[in-house]
Design brief:
Cytochrome Bc1 Complex, Chain A, domain 1; five-stranded mixed beta sheet; globular; 2 domains; 16 helices
Length: about 425
């Protein structure tokens, strides 16, 4: 994987990266614009996501969503777009002979969107409906509350989709001004993997990036390690089950301990072999699913542990989770358990690097967006296999501290459990 990568940095600040793959007849390609929710002003919350939707509703050369969908749809692949906290991406997967036309359609939509008021009104109604749908989804509210509790007052605590107030303020004039100022070539990326010719790709993409603003890449507020954490946050819901999320700040993707973090999280709650699954479900039958995951970004990391349980048993489940957290910090992982987890993660790394234009694209995208060094799977496997029990114990002791934790709860309205008592059960139960 990533053996035939070529990267061209343009004079306008954009980068074009390709990975040519022998034997492939397809191409995965995408434009990545450095604009997301963390780069927005508070009054612009959700505008990046809104602009992403509007861009595919018509451009100067392809003036309607129907035309765009028909051209890209006839290749039998797919197109999609997504907005994150830092990036907006527009993607497609097509046969190699459709590369030129796909770049032309997506490129014109990105560089020359129409943004008519009539289309804005249609999309506004759809986005407001999505906001209402999310407000009715207790799981989505819980995830949003996690970020709001871990980084209260920081832009990362705002929903990417925005609020009814911020979305209602968008009109044709303001959206066009937002696009002109924020869709800049500086920091922009284009990535293509599969059957590609780098020089031909550069020739086709160059006019698109040249048509974007030459303003500086939109800045974003970085997260400081000492940002205050809200110890407990509660959402009342109409569900019969109580759901919790135990969240700790972890290490970033540039930290060499990220491999230890991945192993630690998996030992704790990765699958049916994990300690939490064996204890909470296997021995006590208190949850159908209990698990842990982690996210490592450029300037923050987070480990989440969660489950849905009966309100009557949530205190005991939190006490069991707390026990497993303390055990990982108190004593080293045993040789057999560590050997199993290292081999599992090394195998996953090898399997995930099995050559395909989709996987190649994902790896290259993660490296370029997060300013990571492009490395082969052998280096990754070596780092996984060299992680020691003391590495895991040291990281557990550093991360699994009460002052580094927010307990986020989604409780039925009739649940009488005290949130403060539940947090006490987690750390002292």
């Amino acid at each position: 994987m990533l053996e035939n990568v070529k990267i061209t940095k343009l004079d306008n600040g954009a980068r074009i990266a390709t990975s040519a793959m022998q034997g492939s007849n397809v191409c995965r390609l995408g434009f990545h614009i450095p604009m997301g929710s963390r780069r927005e002003k508070a009054s612009e919350a959700g505008w990046s996501h809104f602009a992403e939707h509007m861009i595919l509703r018509g451009s100067e050369k392809y003036p309607s969503q129907k035309i765009i969908n028909r051209i890209l749809g006839r290749f039998g692949g797919y197109k999609n777009a997504a907005t994150t906290s830092l990036w907006t991406g527009f993607y497609a997967r097509v046969p190699a002979y459709g590369i030129g036309e796909t770049i032309d359609v997506l490129g014109d939509a990105i560089a020359h969107p129409l943004f008519t008021q009539s289309e804005i009104e249609i999309e506004r109604n759809a986005i407001l409906a999505e906001i209402r749908m999310m407000a009715d989804d207790s799981n989505r509210r819980l995830i949003h509350l996690v970020y709001k509790s871990m980084w209260s007052g920081h832009p990362i605590g705002r929903p990417i989709i925005g609020t009814p107030k911020s979305i209602s303020s968008i009109d044709e004039k303001s959206l066009k001004a937002f696009h002109r100022a924020r869709y800049t070539s500086h920091g922009a990326l284009f990535i293509a993997t599969g059957k590609v010719d780098h020089d031909e790709i550069v020739e086709r993409v160059l006019p698109v990036f040249n048509a974007l603003s030459d303003a500086p890449e939109p800045r974003y507020r970085r997260i400081s390690p000492d940002w205050p954490i809200k110890p407990v946050a509660v959402d009342r819901c109409d569900e019969s089950e109580a759901t919790f999320m135990i969240s700790f700040r972890g290490v970033t993707n540039s930290d060499s301990r990220k491999y230890a973090q991945a192993l630690l999280t998996d030992i704790l709650g990765g699958d049916a072999n994990s300690r939490l699954f064996r204890n909470v479900r296997g021995r006590n039958g208190l949850a159908y699913v209990v698990g842990a995951n982690f996210i490592a970004e450029e300037d923050f990391g987070i480990i989440n542990i969660g489950a849905s349980v009966s309100p009557d048993s949530i205190e005991k489940v939190l006490a069991l989770c707390g026990h497993e957290l303390r055990e990982l910090a108190r004593k080293p992982v045993g040789r057999q358990e560590l050997s199993f987890q290292r081999e599992k993660f090394a195998s996953i790394a090898i399997l995930e690097n099995e050559s395909s234009c989709e996987k190649e694209y994902t790896i290259l995208n993660n490296c370029l967006e997060n300013h990571r060094k492009i490395e082969g799977v052998d280096a990754e496997v070596e780092r996984i296999r060299s992680t020691s029990a003391s590495d895991l114990q040291g990281l557990a002791a550093e991360i699994f501290r009460p002052e580094n934790c927010s307990l986020v709860l989604s409780l039925p309205r009739n649940c009488k459990a005290s949130p403060e008592k539940l947090r006490e059960a987690l750390f002292n139960g």
